[in-house]
Predict the 3D structure of the following.
Amino acid sequence: MFLENKYTTDELVKRCKAGERKAQELLYKQFASKMLGVCCRYATDRMEAEDMMQNGFIRVFQKIEDFRGEGSFEGWMRRIMVHSSIEYYRKHHKMMQLVDLDEAGAESTSNPLATAKLEADDLLLLIQQLSPGYRIVFNLYAIEGYSHREIAAIVGITEGASKSQLSRARSILREQVIKMEGKKYGYAG
Amino acid sequence: MDMQDKEFDDLFRSKLDGFEAEPSANVWPKITEGLETQKRRKTFAPWLGIAASIVVLIGVGLFFIPKKANTGAKPQAKDPIAVITHPAIKTPTVVTQTQVPAGANTPAKLKQETEIARVENKQTPNTGTSKADDTVMAPEKTFVKDDHQVLANIQTKPITPAKPVVPDVTVQLAVKSSIDQLSGQGIKPDKLASQNLADNKKDSVLVKRKHKIHNFGDLVNLVVDKLDKRQDKVVQFADDEDGDSHLTGVNLGIVKIKKGE
């Protein structure tokens, strides 16, 4: 344990570029839980998230030579995880076309700040219940902070589709948030 | 509304951006396994490429060697396809010339006439050949028996008497066929079949074949024939039973593809 903490990320990256397996393992241990946190938002469950992360790390180690040190290594890794998660859907689901239109409900007027009462796990559950198309766009826009143009390029849809999927994702989430709060805390609050 | 959306998004982001989850212990072994297989694939990839191209080259070689042997051994295998032959075009004049000496009936001349007859038969699409044959058969048999007893005695099969049939018929057929050509009608499959039979009977007769233009494939063949003097043309078409042309051969120098008959 002491040995693991002795190395900085930069050093580990350097050793990983040389193909050192031990350094790869240390780097993995350093970032695995954070990266699994990212993948969890794109997955339907934990199993899927681990598969996504596994593919992501394999790609990280394959492409680590391309990392030039511009920006943080963690940010670079996160982007790879996001792409690997989307790639996973491309392979395993015909995702974007399979957006369930019935899910889109009426726009809610409830105070969004009410979500403050909900924990991260609850919100994660709500996101995981979205259909893949909504989930990916909402994650990329609301949490990763990509623009609609960037999302369109990453996912391979139009900007318009990205916008409409985002607003539908939001309205579904609002509805679910209200339901969940009602269950957890009662409407009287 | 925009503000609300932004706040809504921010809430999710603040709660989930730093979200962490402990992966199960079996993920790292799977990653190393994945890296190993990728490595192996990388080192083997060039060898696989070389091996694959060798296999392909051998395969192509094996594919062409027997094909060439075939074309050399029996060129007549193609004859059924050569539905219409060049001499056929000239036959009306030829026939009228040979018609009179046919009375003399020297074996050589007979043979010559049968050649023409064969060609003519090939060309006649409309007239019921069987009918035509029947009508001519009777006079011919007598004709042969009178002048060439030897022939009649030796060859009792119906095939031989059919040979001299030609002279009388051909004139009619030639006229009809030329009309058919004008009306642009193709040759029907059943006629082709009878031609094939005729071909088999008289394998010894070799006629230099030349296609007549019936469709696009024939046109291409004609043009290519003028430009490309190799045995395997750059592109070759052949007519099938329905008179449709199909690509049967491509010769790009290095890459040769030829469909067997």
Residues 159-185 of chain A form the longest helix (27 residues).
